[in-house]
Amino acid sequence: MYAGVAHDILIMAGGANFPENLPWEGGKKHYSDQVFYMLHDESQKAEIKQFTGSLPQPMAYGASINFEDGIILIGGENESGLLRDVLFLKPDLASNRFLIESLPNLPWQMSYLSAVKIGKTLYVQGSTEEKKAVFLSLDLKKKNGFWNQLPVYPGPARTNAGMVIQTDGESEKIYLLGGRQKRENGVSDVFSDIFSFDPGSMKWKKEGKMQDEKGVEIKRSAHTLLAAGSGHILIIGGLEPEPFNTLERLGKELQNEKLSQEKLDSLVKLRDKLLINHSGFNKEVLAYHTVTGTWTRLEDLPFSPPANSILISNQNDYFLISGEISPGIRSPWIQKLKLRSDQSFGSLNYTILGLYLGILVLIGFWVSKKQHNVSDFFKAGGRVPWWAAGISVFGTQLSAITFMAIPSKTFATDWTLFFLLMTIIMVSPLIIAWFLPFYRRMNLTTAYEYLEMRYNSTVRIMGSSIYIILQLGRLGIVLLLPSLALSTVTGIEVELCILLMGILSIVYTVLGGIEAVIWTDVIQVGVLLGGALICLILMFFTGNISWLDIKTLAIESGKTQVFDWSLDFSGTAIWVVLLGGLASNIVQYGSDQTVIQRYLTTKDEKTAAKGITAGAWMALPSALIFFSIGTALYLFYLKNPQELSPVVQNTDSIFPWYIVTQLPDGVSGLLIAAVFAAAMSSLDSSMNSVATVITTDFYQQIRLKKLLPINELGFARTVTIIIGSIGTALAVWMANMGIPSLWDQFNMLIGLFAGGLGGIFLVGILSSSVNGKGATYGLLGSALIQVLVKYYSPLSIHLYALTGLISAMTLTWILSRFFTDPHQKSKTQYTLSALNNKVRKSSISKTQTENPLTV
């Protein structure tokens, strides 16, 4: 049949069977033109209903793809032969009917083909009647489009192959597994080979052969594939060479008209015996991991899966529909499958996690006694030691996503992003020399106060607004993504994880302000780095990973590559990493209130500089630890593939999965607490900083006009609660809607403005010829350029900060030439050269006063 999901209902169309007699008993194959759908009532009981109307013609043995509000039926066959038709079926439950829209026909008639979809592009693989391999694509965004012929895989033509989309750790690839092709003698070659296709480079790669868990080659056709978890492809059922090839040979021999009756009867008896005694197809479920290239066997299915079946995903359920359960017999069943794990977190781990979270709240109560005004709430009254401020800056940048993402990225790829983290060490002297003097000597509370001094109030409001919107979106992601991973490995519901982190962070941030945030950050960084270091040590001592393994497996496989010297600016070449990292850190440390607020909490400029330096240098040991963990994870799961479960839904969950499944109770509880720590460290920082910006850049300006009462501390605490609640609610909503990827895209689009915001800061500091209108239009123009860069250029995402920084600086400088500012001269005092001149004059004046004879 053809099958898919539209409007959350399961749709099934066409198909074929033998309604009267089995094929070797003279039964005639019937092709169907009916369309059915499955609904669930309030008790979740399934009900099958038939649509009114029928397909334009009977169809079966084609491919089907979900697309927006319907399913696409591709090729197939019926009584008249093979088909080229491509139809778009759109259901209408209200009228119990469906609409059919014709799409461009295939260039050839094909059946037993495979199809997948990436975005709005269809990819189809099959074989023509002349046994020519075919690989096609159709872009559905283009009206009146046509099928493009793409390069074919480096192997024999085939039908009945499995095709699926899965990531290889770097990007999505199309994987083609197995299949068969009938030779001239009527007997089919059944294949075991695996190919991957990169839609970006338009190149195929041979990945190896299908194997069982013992490494024995297996050949399959008409099997069902499922892309599961962070890199697994599950192979379900299908035909093996025997007894399939034997039945083909018998069928060919029975066509020989010269056979004697005795020989004919003997062959018929042998054929019927094989068919009648057929035990069904293989029940085993094999799993191939695209990153490690390893094979494992999962729990067998409790039934014989049908060949030529369709596996449809709908939320967390998988439906196995139609197919052939034994020769000539079609399956009338819809089987529902689930991926599950019996992994539990354990009472000791829960106790450790609960104690840790309780300590954070107690810190909030302890610090709350020192909160008397907004200066205490936002700047800690200048009481924070430089080392604590530096650790807090580091902890703010190292979120839970980073805690999980660096090891997972290294597990999937290599060390080429190592120097991305090192660029903060290179940038910190510039931050201390260029940005720090302005924020400290002008006694600023937010970075955006400088924008009004240097430009005008409009630019300040734009900068503050961009920051607030960016942080609101970030709050939801920082809560949701770790919660998804924690839910997978601990069994705690996603919503409960979100509420735990969200509510507790709100409590201690409201009570203790920035001082509570910084001191909890200090504890959280200690737990995070200490736990990660313990984990790394245990991985090497308990995971049977020797230095010989590192040399032969990691180094030779390229997993420890640090430098990519290519001139490819779409990947992770060293030029991309360095340029992108330098720009990104200039933007974050120079214009991001979350970071800047940390170095405003120390007693003076000198101690703030020491804090920035300390936080920057902490990147080195942390990077070494987390990148090493990623390599160790790869080596462990390469040697123990059965330990990596397909229930691990994304690569970022691999490190937490290892923690819970491989480390002793207590240690795993501490490390999961570290994931909570990293998430909450980013969360509390964003809440307090957004409250600071709203209070300072908006509330105080309105209060000065006597439109609001004077209670800044109360207002700041109220805003903190509101911001934290909004972020927590966003995360819960996204979890229920199942659309984290959509919000990733939203945050990336908003984040494109951050580079431009850093650009107008930097050009304002360095140039005396720019003005407010030039900055306003420069920022808007930079945002437009950033959107064009994202959608119409192959540039790596790591370069977005650089393109935003440069475009905003350039446009602001050029556009300022077309506008005049009557206060331009007075505002040049807020440039770096003016500030340095003032310092030099002050130094000379001091020297003259102290020692006039020398002068």
Summarize the structure.
By secondary structure, this protein is an alpha+beta fold. The chain has 23 helices and 29 strands.
Describe the structure.
By secondary structure, this protein is an alpha+beta fold. It has 23 helices and 29 strands. The strands form nine sheets. A four-stranded antiparallel β-sheet has the order 1-2-5-6, with no helix packed on it. A four-stranded antiparallel β-sheet has the order 7-8-9-10, with no helix packed on it. Helix 5 (386-397) packs across helix 10 (494-542), helix 9 crosses helix 18 and helix 20 (772-792) runs antiparallel to helix 21. It is elongated, with a radius of gyration of 32 Å. The termini are far apart. The model is unreliable at 739-744 (pLDDT under 50).
Mean pLDDT: 85
Oligomer: single chain
Low-confidence stretches: 739-744
Please count the beta strands (DSSP E, at least 2 residues each). Answer: 29
Shape from CA axes? elongated
Largest sheet: 4 strands, antiparallel
Number of helices: 23
Can you tag this structure with a few keywords?
four-stranded antiparallel sheet, 23 helices, 17% strand, 855 residues, alpha+beta, 49% helix
Q: What does the secondary structure layout of this molecule look like, with pairings?
A:
Elements: E1 2-6, E2 9-13, E3 16-17, E4 30-31, E5 35-40, E6 46-50, E7 63-67, E8 70-78, E9 81-92, E10 97-103, E11 114-118, E12 121-127, E13 133-139, E14 148-149, E15 162-167, E16 172-177, E17 180-182, E18 188-190, E19 193-198, E20 203-209, E21 224-228, E22 232-236, H1 241-254, H2 261-276, E23 285-289, E24 295-297, E25 310-314, E26 317-321, E27 324-326, E28 329-330, E29 334-337, H3 347-368, H4 374-379, H5 386-397, H6 400-412, H7 418-441, H8 448-454, H9 457-490, H10 494-542, H11 547-555, H12 574-591, H13 593-596, H14 605-617, H15 619-639, H16 654-662, H17 667-704, H18 712-737, H19 740-766, H20 772-792, H21 800-815, H22 824-827, H23 832-850
Antiparallel strand pairs: 1-2, 2-5, 3-4, 5-6, 7-8, 8-9, 9-10, 11-12, 12-13, 13-14, 15-16, 16-19, 17-18, 19-20, 21-22, 22-23, 23-24, 25-26, 26-29, 27-28
Helix pairs in contact: 1-2, 3-10, 3-17, 5-10, 5-14, 5-17, 6-15, 6-17, 7-12, 7-14, 7-15, 8-9, 9-10, 9-16, 9-17, 9-18, 9-19, 10-15, 10-17, 10-18, 11-15, 12-19, 12-21, 16-17, 17-18, 19-20, 19-21, 20-21
